[in-house]
Amino acid sequence: MDFGWFYLLIVIAILIFCVYLMFSRYGHLKLGKKDDEPDFSRLSWFAMLFSAGMGMGLVFWTTAEPISHAFISSPLHEVGTDEAIKEALKYSFFHWGIHAWAVYGIVGLILAYFKFNRGAPGLISATLAPLFGEKLMSGALGKWIDVLAVFATIVGVAATLGFGSAQITGGLSYLFGIPNNFTVQLIVLAISTALFIWSAWSGIGKGIKYLSNINMGLAILLLILVFFVGPSMYILNMFTHTLGSYFADFFKMSLRLAPLNEENRSWINSWTIFYWAWWISWAPFVGIFIARISKGRTLKEFLFGVLLVPSLLCFIFFAVFGVSALHLEQLGIAAISELSLETSTFGVLAEYPFGLFLSILTIIVIAIFFITSADSATFVLGMLSTNGLLNPGNSVKIAWGLIQSTIAAVLVYSGGTQGLQNMLIIAALPFAIVIILMSISFLKVIKSESVSLRKKKI
């Protein structure tokens, strides 16, 4: 991939910019007016942003990724060795940690500031007006930028819906022998569509909030149960060690390209560069949704909540599920690496006490994460197609929900998810440039407004 260097540099630059804003003199700025209070409690806010940002993908990859890095294709060492196993968890932390949330966070922060502090439409193009002017951004160029955001959201969510229906169907097949075919996947997709359209219809304050809260509660319950039935002390030891090595090698991993090692470079392209492009392409959807639910919070509170809390939760999930899987493979109890990606989690749970109960609970958690990601995207697409309305009409949300599900059904039937993901990576390149421009525009605005505020005080 010729632009690997670009993705690595842009993501670390975004992260550094977020940290700068968090600890700068702008950290006290509120997203909204001085007397605006947050619309949601911190717990509900965390639950919604986490469900939209990671959701079902986290449940899927917490088992599959560490196993892949340790026993199928290692980033640095020979597969199956102790070093490969330790590196496997470290790189899982790296891929799902603070870098991803920095990309989401900067887009969400800028959109929220322009919407709640300047009264701009909730559109990507509106954040670039200070650089290029209102006239240009309300014209053809602005429309193309917003179309790019819509495209990335549709493609990303449709791929996730197809992916999710495959995992739920794979789990049902593994546990109960239900046929794993297109008809069953279509039934799962249809039921999920009805539920997420209902949730989006109910609005953020009802359906989306309640489902996110319920699902985070169930996910934490599942996490605790797996921790206690799994190799608890091994999990704690690996979590502590990996956290230390993650921080020690943070910048080394952030800028690693292995230009003289073709095998390592291929691994970086397949995993790290793919993830960085994936997070960038998802940034319009997740960023707009996070912006919508973050009114009344200060910049420092917003960035602390979006960067650090979800990252720590991701680390804990990977430690519990990933180490439980690695433990089984290390001891030769089960060959998890030989299972398909969608059934690897269920293969792990089957080897521990209360496996059937935990597997059923996992399917429920995946299904609700599936619904919360889709209803969040439906809400965002409604906003993007109604000039940034905070509460788009129900008919618009229903239309977008049906469009997403139809595309997902076509993907499942044709097996074209991989092609759609490649399109998503292509879309990430221009949107990465848009994020750079958004950041410059935002910095220009807050500097200007800060100077004006000081002059008024004088």
Please supply descriptive tags for the structure shown above.
18 helices; mainly alpha; 458 residues
Alpha carbon gap, first and last residue:
54 Å
Would you count the extended β strands for me? 0
Count up the helices: 18
Q: Write down the Rg.
A: 22 Å
Content of β-strand: under 5%
What does this structure look like?
It is built from 18 helices and no strands. The protein is mainly α and 458 residues long. Helix 1 (4-23) crosses helix 13 (262-292).
In short:
This protein has 458 residues and is mainly alpha-helical. Helix content is 79%, strand content 0%.
What's the structural blueprint in terms of helices and strands?
Elements: H1 4-23, H2 42-53, H3 56-71, H4 82-96, H5 98-118, H6 129-132, H7 134-137, H8 140-176, H9 182-202, H10 204-229, H11 232-248, H12 250-254, H13 262-292, H14 299-331, H15 344-349, H16 355-384, H17 394-414, H18 417-457
Helix pairs in contact: 1-5, 1-13, 1-14, 1-18, 2-10, 2-13, 2-16, 3-4, 3-14, 4-11, 4-14, 5-13, 5-14, 5-18, 8-9, 8-13, 8-16, 8-17, 8-18, 9-10, 9-16, 9-17, 10-16, 11-14, 13-16, 13-18, 16-17
